[in-house]
Design goal:
The protein is mostly helical. The protein has 2 domains: 223 residues, no CATH class; 213 residues, no CATH class. It has 20 helices and no strands. Helix 13 packs parallel to helix 16. The longest helix is centred in the middle third of the chain and has 37 residues. The protein is globular.
Length: 488
């Protein structure tokens, strides 16, 4: 495929992937706000306590096969069908492990309610195993339009049910209902819309080939999930369910934004760039665009959220959530580096170097363990500051192999993202101090709206003044999709 053909197809994929994630995250933000008004921080704390074990069970079901199948250039019917049966079997095994270990997990936290919660929520792992190949099939085709049509209704229906249950006083079970309904509706819809069906084939050779690549990603994924949630485990063990809830809710709010933008770009660029995995010059050019696009959006989003955290919490949530404001602000600082991690690790998968991926994960997890051991002595704020330290320091090893594989060094990356960071920081400072002037309005909602307008406008102007090229590229994509849409 030519450069222009790949770019057009990728841009279209990003457009629909962004809409899909926008719908999902937009609904997610609205539902999260509504639920938080009716639920207690301790309700979120209970879900936080089981989240790591649920995530590991999902990783066991996936086992890295998703990335391996997406990356394979000439995937066959045998490959698809083998993975379908493999993931169903792994999903059943993962659920059984969750079911049996539920009492031990509840005993660890000294919270008996977790037994039933784990055994009910665990069904989602089996549900997800049934949609695995359907999602891979659409992703390989860069067909995110169909996924958008499926995900949006699922988010709306599951969100409405959760909010109604919360209003009726179902507490934590409102969150459980949302966690089960959304994947269930998505799975059923995918089987109705997509025409892929499994054949009665199971290829040992296909399994071995995909397993060889995917297993290392699986181990890396489990390590990442465990250590990413190690903060929740430590906080849940050392502090109350309420404090755990503040932390979990803050990560949920931040990640709704991080995964919205980074997820939509990464989801499309991985299968698209896998097609040029052996062309280093094209890869470097593409990754420079990707890292610039991600930081162009994430840097202002995180900085603006730091500034607006308290006003937004006061405006949208009840006073019981105000203690979570500094949690969110510190997590957003750590989140600034997230797109850099995503891009550098994504390259290793595109290049098929799952061995290096695993090596990096082990190295970083050792570092995280040491930092948590030290920072936990200084309370919850110490743990959060420790998370910032590990996020920034981990960027160094993550970017090392990118320099080796496609000659995209740390200094080049920093040079590419510095103008964006400077523009976003200046806009954030002006937004922060503008609140003092806007206080004369005395209407909290209008103050926040004007702050957002001031910060966003200044950021766009600074981007033009500083000649940030990615802004023109992104505007061109938006113009092409919204204004100059023509039959192809």
């Amino acid at each position: 495929m030519s450069n222009s053909g790949l770019m057009n197809k990728t841009a279209g994929g990003i457009f629909w992937s962004f809409l899909e994630l926008s719908g999902r995250r937009g609904i997610g933000i609205l539902v999260t706000i509504l639920l938080a008004r009716f639920l207690l921080p301790s309700d979120y704390g209970l879900i936080a306590m089981i989240s790591v074990f649920f995530a590991i069970a999902n990783a066991l079901m996936d086992a890295g096969f998703r990335q391996a199948l997406i990356r394979k250039k000439d995937a066959t019917t045998a490959d698809y069908s083998t993975m379908f049966y493999t993931n169903i079997a792994l999903g059943i095994v993962a659920y059984c492990l969750l079911f049996l270990s539920a009492p031990l997990i509840a005993n660890f936290y000294q919270e008996i309610r977790l037994v039933v919660l784990l055994r009910v929520v665990g069904f989602v792992v089996i549900i997800n195993s049934l949609q695995f190949v359907q999602v891979v099939d659409l992703t390989r085709k860069l067909d995110f339009k169909t996924q958008f049509k499926v995900v949006l209704p699922a988010g709306i229906i599951s969100g409405l049910v959760a909010v109604l249950m919360a209003i009726k006083g179902f507490g934590v079970w409102s969150l459980v209902a949302q966690m089960i309904l959304s994947p269930l509706i998505i799975t059923v819809s995918l089987w109705c819309i997509n025409d892929w069906r499994p054949a009665w084939v199971f290829s040992i050779n296909s399994f071995k080939e995909l397993f060889d690549f995917g297993f290392k990603l699986f181990l890396s994924g489990v390590l990442d999930i465990f250590f990413r949630n190690l903060y929740v485990i430590v906080i849940g063990k050392l502090f109350s369910p309420a404090i755990t809830g503040y932390y979990f809710f803050s990560t949920k709010v931040r990640d709704l934004i991080l995964q919205q933008f980074c997820g939509s770009i990464q989801k499309v660029t991985y299968p698209a760039l896998s097609t040029i995995q052996d062309e280093n010059i094209r890869l470097k050019g593409a990754y420079r665009k990707v890292i610039q696009a991600m930081t162009y959006i994430i840097f202002p989003a995180m900085i603006f959220l730091i500034v607006l955290a308290k006003p937004l919490f006061l405006l949208l949530l009840k006073d019981k959530w105000i203690p979570a404001v500094p949690y969110l602000q510190l997590l957003c600082i750590a989140g600034l580096v997230y797109p850099l991690h995503v891009v550098n690790l994504n390259l290793l998968k595109v290049k098929g170097r799952s061995d290096l991926f695993l090596y990096l994960e082990i190295l970083k997890k050792i570092m995280i363990s040491v930092v948590i051991l030290v920072s936990s002595r200084f309370g919850i704020k110490g743990i959060l500051i420790g998370q910032i330290v590990t996020s920034f320091v981990a960027y160094i090893p993550n970017s090392y192999f990118t320099a080796k594989l496609i000659d995209y060094s740390v200094m080049e990356q920093i040079k590419d993202i510095s103008p964006v960071f400077l523009a976003a920081s200046l806009a954030g400072v002006v937004m922060f101090y503008s609140e003092r002037i806007l206080m004369i309005i005395k209407i909290p909602l209008l103050i926040v709206i004007f702050q957002v307008l001031i910060g966003s406008s200044l950021y766009l102007v600074l981007a033009v003044f500083m000649k940030i090229e990615i802004q023109q590229t992104l505007w061109g994509i938006c113009k092409d999709r919204f204004v100059n849409i023509s039959p192809r």
